[in-house]
Specification:
This protein is α+β, with helices and mostly antiparallel strands and 547 residues long. The protein has four domains: 65 residues, no CATH class; 89 residues, PDZ domain (Pdz3 Domain); 210 residues, 2-enoyl-CoA Hydratase, Chain A, domain 1, CATH 3.90.226; 156 residues, no CATH class. The protein is built from 18 helices and 23 strands. The chain has a six-stranded mixed sheet, sandwiched between helices. Strands 1, 13, 14, 17 and 18 form a five-stranded antiparallel sheet that branches. A hairpin with a 2-residue loop joins β5 and β6. α1 packs antiparallel against α2, α8 runs parallel beside α9 and α13 packs antiparallel against α14. The longest helix is centred in the N-terminal third of the chain and has 24 residues. It is globular, with a radius of gyration of 27 Å. The termini are far apart. 30% of the residues are buried.
Length: 547
């Protein structure tokens, strides 16, 4: 029956296409869909092994969508809940993120104020069972499903915590979870209000408005909106956030696509909260989509100074379309343009190379635009910050160590052995504590491959092909020995970077996002630049001036 349904859906699509596609393309589309339906029928009937119809068709769908852009996705019915949580930030459960760290299912983020956090669960707690079902070794999706459920229902979690001999049991009552878009909002001195905005789910603009209103009551005369690593979300929330800082009736963004009736210009509909307070927006290479609408619009109106790194460059808009059998399609339907007229899309998905890869728009194709005050800005490559700050780079040793989960595990161990500090602002690891960390890592037999390892292996393989290896073997052995010696001292050589990363991880274990932000407040390079720019009104105005 399922097989007949799939073929029936394809035939219905053929019929629908007749009414939605120009006549010159209809024949090719109908022909291709007919070929696909008959091909599937033949494979299903005659392939030597039994095939899974659903899996086969989904593979075909995903292969087709892979030829477009990474934002156009097929969402089968069973994935709708996860998609809804991602787009709305709402679900019913205990309010905790979970993940796999070195084959253990652990709590990675108990959201502040929700059942898991209120009940006493901590970052790093290993989940052993949920409501009597052992979950060790099970996928996180299975564990997550057990934790979610109808509001006001009970769930019992057993966890293993370092420093505790016995398992700990937590009886929690599920409730509706609405994840906050703002992970940190504080006055960081007598005049500067700081907001770390991580999401653009419904309510983001109201949260920012409430934070700014509270800051102004406390005497704030300057603001920093941190959009670093914010991947975006709702376009409407982006428009409403911009509306807080620019007058009513101003264009924020326009969308243009194939369906002209869907093209739209979004303007500010409300009176602003404050059009004068000096504003800095922090950006990074992972600031994308809605983040770029906010940052780009404020830049185009010369309303904020952008500090940090060039943004990601996602100038595409997605629309969700309903499909048969409760499936959905998230499809790119338009490009968006900010007030200066530029589209900041950086990757050209329309013109793929013969091998299927895509490239960024060439510098020669980028065009010059002007902000409202006459400053030069450019399209085709994300947003250029007004005050660039070089991004922190890490060696392969640091990256591999973080990815290994050992930093997370050591932070869990450290927090079980030391009391929670009253504040993380002055928290620093001593040299002695860092040495304990390196000793512990060595005991875990941490190994990693570097780019030098790869290049050396390639060189040896080349020498063997060219029959030079026997002559050069001693030199190759010496090279490999030196590389290994270099790796053995990697933790000592990367101490400044690893210390900061470990301090941030420990701070998060102790006090979640609040601790993670506060432990870096006085040594955050982008925030430091924001202080400098905002400390003198003349510097701020000069950056926003065309002269």
């Amino acid at each position: 029956m399922k097989r007949l349904k799939i073929i029936s859906v394809l035939l219905v699509v053929v019929a629908i296409v007749a009414f939605t596609v120009p006549s010159e393309k209809y024949f090719d589309i109908a022909k291709s869909l007919d070929i696909f339906a008959t091909l599937f029928k033949e494979v299903n009937a005659y392939y030597v092994d039994d095939v899974n119809p659903k899996k086969l068709v989904e593979t075909g769908i995903n292969g087709m969508l892979n030829q477009l852009d990474p934002y156009t996705d097929y969402i089968p019915e069973e994935d709708l809940e996860a998609f809804s949580i991602q787009t709305t930030g709402q679900y019913a459960g205990v309010g905790a993120l979970i993940g796999i760290v070195n084959k253990k299912t652990v709590i990675t983020n108990p959201y502040v104020g929700f059942p898991a956090h209120r009940g006493g669960l901590r970052v790093g707690d290993e989940i052993i069972s949920v409501s009597g079902q052992n979950v060790q070794g099970k996928p996180t999706s299975d564990v997550s499903s057990l934790l979610k459920g109808k509001p006001n229902t009970e769930v019992v979690m057993e966890v293993k915590r370092p420093g505790e001999k016995n398992l700990l049991s937590f009886k929690l009552i599920r409730e509706k979870i609405k994840i906050s878009n703002i992970t940190y909002r504080e006055m960081i001195d007598n005049e500067l209000g700081y907001i770390k905005l991580d999401e653009f789910t419904p309510g983001a603009a109201k949260e920012v408005e409430a934070a700014v209103t509270e800051f102004k009551k406390q005497g704030a005369k300057k603001l920093v909106l941190d959009l670093r690593d914010n991947l975006g979300g709702s376009l409407y929330e982006a428009v409403n956030i911009v509306n807080l800082f620019i007058p009513k009736g101003k264009e924020v963004v326009s969308t243009k696509g194939k369906v002209e009736d869907w093209n739209k210009t979004y303007t500010t509909l409300n009176n602003p909260l404050d059009t004068e307070i000096p504003l800095v927006v922090l950006t990074s290479g992972s600031s994308a989509s809605a983040s770029e609408i906010v940052a780009g619009s404020l830049q185009d109106y010369d309303r904020a100074v952008l500090i940090g790194q060039k943004t990601f460059g996602k100038g595409l808009v997605q629309t969700t379309r309903q499909l048969a059998y409760n499936a959905q399609l998230k499809v790119t339907t338009a490009k968006y343009y900010i007030p200066s007229g530029r589209c900041i899309q950086a990757i050209d998905y329309e013109h793929r190379k013969s091998d299927g890869t895509v490239s960024k728009f060439a510098d020669s194709l980028k065009r010059e635009f002007k902000t409202k005050g006459g400053r030069k800005v450019y399209d085709g490559a994300g947003l250029d910050p007004d005050v660039p700050v070089e991004a922190t780079t890490f060696s392969s040793a640091v990256i591999e160590l973080v990815n290994s989960g050992f930093v997370f595990e050591y932070a869990t161990k450290y927090c079980s052995e030391h009391p929670n500090p009253a504040s993380m602002k002055n928290f620093r690891l001593s040299d002695q504590e860092y040495q304990k960390f390196t000793t512990w890592v060595a005991e875990q037999k941490f190994t990693y491959a570097t780019e030098l390892d790869q290049k050396a292996d390639e060189l040896i393989a080349s020498a063997k092909r060219e029959k030079y290896y026997d002559e050069l073997q001693s030199q190759f052995n010496e090279l490999k020995t030196r590389i290994d010696q270099n790796k053995n001292t990697a933790l000592a050589r990367n101490k400044p970077e690893l210390s900061r990363i470990l301090e941030q991880e420990i701070a998060f274990h102790y006090q979640l996002a609040k601790g993670q932000v506060e432990v870096m407040l006085d040594r955050d390079p982008e925030l430091g630049q924001a202080h400098k720019v905002l400390s003198e009104a003349g510097v701020y105005r000069k950056i926003l001036s065309a002269n």
